[in-house]
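tmp note - Phosphonates-binding protein
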Amino acid sequence: MPRLKIKNLLFAFLTLSLVACTQNKSELGSKKNPIKFYLVPAQDIMTLTEQGKVLKEYLAKDLGLEVELELPTNYVAVVEAFGSKRADVAILNTLGYVLAHEKYGAEAKLKLINRGRDQYYGQIIVRHDGPKTLKELNGKKFAFVDPTSVSGYLLPQRLFKQEGITIKESVFAGKQDTVVTAVYQKQVDGGATFYTPPDDDGTPKDARWLLRTQYPDIYEKVKILQLTDPIPNNPVVFRKDIPEELKTKIIESLKKYIKTPEGAKVMMDLYHITEFREVADKDYDMVRQYLKDVGMKSHDFVQ
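out:
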């Protein structure tokens, strides 16, 4: 075949490939390729489902695009979804973001703010009739949330290492409220969950708050034994190759929504969010240091 024809064919092939790529990108948000919004399974699945549906409907209407809500069963599933390009955007836990950024280049664009605070803590909880000191957890049964939870695993492990405490048997409950339930029902001797300071009126807002209706005596039966070091709040994370203009539209849509009565309720019910702020990757360097402190690396969580 003449060289000129080969060149023409190659040029045509490359042109078609570029057009196809451009079309595929432009299809994000269509019925065929909806924006896939993931919610990390930090608490009660019913609340996440109900309020997540309201959030999805708002985003679809405000953006004028198709949006699909995803509720995975564990934290690392959200991280892996970024690697397989099944997740376009997610409200992701702190350690999950660090892993997704390192492994797949995911980008944090917003930080979740709770009543003006951009940090929270981990807490060690026990029953009031259980262990009286941290040392008394040595050799006991303990419930963690998830291997990729900073408050529910990483910082408690760091604390136990610093204090020379060895847990005899540990379980991963999967969600914050499930850990509290396990402690309340004496299935374990202690557990690790998130802690945020009480409201101005003194109402506790740590993980026990999630079960205040189911167990009205939760605050009397379950107490906080010790807090961990601070943790930067969870981020809103985007897949790295999403068009910048679409990221901006979603960011502005979320910031606008939380200022409405409906949005304020939905975000509070989902993750105790009262506002969004811009965030940079360096804001999560302290979590990277926590990983070093316990001798862990990202490949310990995501292969």
